[in-house]
Design goal:
The chain is an all-alpha fold. The protein is built from 12 helices and no strands. It is flat and about 120 Å long. The two termini are 52 Å apart.
């Protein structure tokens, strides 16, 4: 009796944790938590501030209960901590238990409450898919970033050699030159920099046009292309896994049907043998 009650309770917890309305409620609480963090940056009346503190306490307790439910609803408790998103949620929730008093940990507590907004990523599957694809694209993006650094370094060296006497504040050394080129790449008043050097070198516009073409168009599109390629492969793998799971489910169902047909055939054979034996006795 106790085993059946515990089994029913476990099934109830799993059903509640995986229900659509519960997931939607969690998303709503996360959004409210984000709003409370933003509200605390304003000067509010003491009554409103007290209400926000009570609301923050309720949100913290709710997140603790929610993570506990997810842990209890997991079939394999050790597998729960093998998922990085579950570990992330657990750290954020446990860190949020740090009291918001005038202690040395107050800044850490505030930061962890800000990071609670990131729990939207762990709750919404599509956001998890995007973040996972972005993380997997980082190695390839690293090579593109290295190539961009080489281009920045070469153009900064050239700019420092030719333009240092024009404006020492922008082209005084290679580090300042790279910062100036970053300003050019982000289109932050880059024409002012170009026109200043064109007064001495009329053809220096070629330097800026080539640099902008490489950084703002070629390398940016390469970054986007890498992310899209990873997302395409992730989508294909996801669809392949779904097909494999469906195929395995069909194989299992067919195997069960074959066993049932075999048992039915054995039953019919046994009944037929009993009838034949009764006829012979007669």
């Amino acid at each position: 009796m106790e085993m059946s009650r515990s089994g029913n309770a476990f099934a109830l917890v799993k059903r509640v944790e995986r229900s659509v309305w519960f997931q939607g409620f969690i998303i709503s609480i996360i959004i409210i938590a984000a709003l409370t963090v933003g509200a605390k940056t304003y000067s509010l009346p003491s009554g409103v501030e007290l209400a926000i503190n009570y609301l923050d306490t309720f949100i913290t307790v709710f997140f603790l209960v929610e993570v506990s439910l997810r842990f209890l609803a997991c079939d394999d408790r050790w597998r729960f901590f093998k998922d990085p998103w579950n570990v992330f949620d657990t750290i954020i929730v446990i860190g949020s238990l740090v009291p918001m008093s005038d202690t040395d940990m107050v800044l850490v507590a505030r930061l962890l409450r800000v990071f609670r907004v990131l729990r939207l990523v762990s709750i919404i599957p599509d956001l998890r898919f995007l973040i996972n694809a972005l993380i997997k694209a980082i190695p390839k993006m690293g090579y593109i970033a290295l190539l961009m650094f080489i281009i920045f370094y070469i153009f900064a060296a050239v700019g420092s050699i030719f333009f240092e006497h024009i404006n020492d504040k922008l082209w005084g050394d290679i580090a300042i030159s790279m910062l100036t080129l970053f300003r050019v790449a982000t289109f932050e008043d880059w024409t002012d920099v170009m026109y200043e050097t064109m007064e001495v070198y009329p053809l220096s516009w070629i330097f800026y046009v080539v640099f902008i073409f490489l950084t703002a168009f070629v390398f940016l599109n390469m970054m986007v292309g890498v992310v899209l390629d990873v997302m395409t492969r992730e989508t294909a793998e996801k669809e392949h896994d779904a097909q494999e799971n469906n195929h395995q489910a069909l194989v299992t169902q067919i195997s069960e049907l074959q066993k049932q047909v075999a048992r039915l055939a054995d039953t019919l054979d046994a009944q037929q043998q009993e009838k034949d034996g009764s006829k012979k006795e007669r």
